[in-house]
């Protein structure tokens, strides 16, 4: 059990604010609705549910984009189940052939699982925007505040979206909201993962639980406490706090638009 700060939220108030935000953002852009990449995980399931509540099922389109032999069958079933439960029109495409074509044409480039995983995220982004553009819709992103702050997303991949309904909530808070929205318990509690390679989990790659990450982020950026104070409050070492702060610092380029050279 992680000790530290109280990150509980007024789920009803948060839900109302997000629903209003979705409605207003879609209205002012003149869009017909939104496209959501639905993976079967807690973040995308929460975003799909919120968008459906805000706009109605006819203005939300879900894209399910698994990779055969990498995406667990449970995730595919959960995504299809939720699309049906919400009454959403949806598209289904396995990205294996698209990914394979890229790799075959770039077989002279040295890569690793992270480089390959980033490519998969960008392929999915291209599909989402192709569908969204054809339907005069926006792409609703599913990144949460934890992922955004530590840079745990692919630049121009899952980070390539039009707006972020749950971008103001830490991962643990998204789970609170998901439970409030009535999502199945196994989705609410499912380990977070981009599923970019076999056995891939977020916490496995990060080396820390989101319970700890969220506590440290809250102490550093919401309460503005020192490393030592946060470490003491959360019950971790100063080195852990520094490692999380370093992730935020190093990923700053992901949260900014590209710099422009001054010419005047």
Automatic annotation (TrEMBL):
**Would you kindly state one Gene Ontology biological process term found in this protein's UniProt entry?**
NAD+ biosynthetic process
Output the InterPro entries linked to this UniProt entry: NAD/GMP_synthase, NAD_synthase, NH(3)-dep_NAD(+)_synth, Rossmann-like_a/b/a_fold
Query: Boundaries of each NAD/GMP synthase domain copy?
Result: 16-258
Q: Which class of enzymes does this protein belong to?
A: ligase
Please list the residues that bind Mg(2+).
43, 147
What does the entry list as the binding residues for deamido-NAD(+)? Answer: 122, 155, 162, 253-254
Pathways per UniProt: Cofactor biosynthesis; NAD(+) biosynthesis; NAD(+) from deamido-NAD(+) (ammonia route): step 1/1
Q: Which GO terms describe its cellular component?
A: cytoplasm
The keyword RNA-binding belongs to this UniProt entry's keyword annotation? no
- Could you name the domain of life of the organism this protein comes from? Archaea
Record-listed ATP binding positions: 37-44, 171, 193
Q: What is catalyzed by this enzyme?
A: deamido-NAD(+) + NH4(+) + ATP = AMP + diphosphate + NAD(+) + H(+)
Statement: the UniProt record of this protein carries the keyword Metal-binding: yes
Note the CDD domains from the entry.
NAD_synthase
Q: Which Gene3D superfamilies match?
A: HUPs
- E.C. number: 6.3.1.5
Q: Which Pfam families match?
A: NAD_synthase
Q: Which UniProt keywords apply?
A: ATP-binding, Ligase, Magnesium, Metal-binding, NAD, Nucleotide-binding
GO molecular-function terms, A-Z: ATP binding; glutaminase activity; metal ion binding; NAD+ synthase (glutamine-hydrolyzing) activity; NAD+ synthase activity
- Main function: Catalyzes the ATP-dependent amidation of deamido-NAD to form NAD. Uses ammonia as a nitrogen source.
Q: How does it assemble?
A: Homodimer.
What is the similarity comment for this entry? Answer: Belongs to the NAD synthetase family.
Q: Which PANTHER family match?
A: GLUTAMINE-DEPENDENT NAD(+) SYNTHETASE, NH 3 /GLUTAMINE-DEPENDENT NAD + SYNTHETASE
Q: List the protein's name.
A: NH(3)-dependent NAD(+) synthetase
Q: Origin organism of this chain? A: Thermoproteota archaeon
What is this organism's lineage?
A: Archaea, Thermoproteota
Q: What gene name is given for the protein in this entry?
A: nadE
């Amino acid at each position: 059990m992680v000790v530290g700060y109280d990150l509980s939220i007024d789920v009803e108030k948060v839900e109302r604010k997000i629903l209003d935000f979705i409605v207003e953002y879609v209205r002012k852009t003149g869009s017909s609705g939104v496209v959501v990449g639905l993976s079967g995980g807690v973040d995308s399931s929460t975003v799909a549910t919120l968008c459906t509540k805000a706009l109605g099922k006819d203005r939300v389109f879900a894209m399910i984009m698994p990779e055969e032999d990498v995406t667990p069958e449970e995730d595919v079933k959960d995504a299809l189940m939720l699309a049906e439960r919400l009454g959403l029109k949806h598209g289904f495409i396995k990205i294996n052939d698209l990914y394979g074509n890229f790799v075959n044409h770039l077989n002279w480039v040295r890569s690793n699982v992270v480089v390959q995983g980033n490519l998969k995220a960008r392929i999915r982004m291209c599909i989402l925007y192709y569908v969204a553009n054809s339907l005069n819709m926006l792409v609703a992103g599913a990144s949460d505040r934890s992922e955004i702050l530590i840079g745990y997303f692919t630049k121009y991949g899952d980070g390539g979206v039009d707006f972020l309904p749950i971008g103001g909530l830490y991962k643990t808070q998204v789970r609170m909201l998901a439970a409030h929205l009535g999502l199945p318990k196994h989705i609410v509690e499912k380990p977070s993962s981009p599923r970019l390679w076999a056995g891939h989990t977020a916490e496995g790659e990060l080396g820390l639980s989101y319970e700890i990450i969220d506590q440290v982020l809250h102490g550093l950026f919401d309460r503005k406490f020192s490393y030592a104070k946060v470490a003491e409050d959360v019950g971790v070492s100063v080195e852990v706090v520094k490692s999380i702060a370093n992730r935020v610092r190093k990923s700053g380029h992901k949260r900014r638009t590209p710099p422009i050279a001054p010419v005047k």
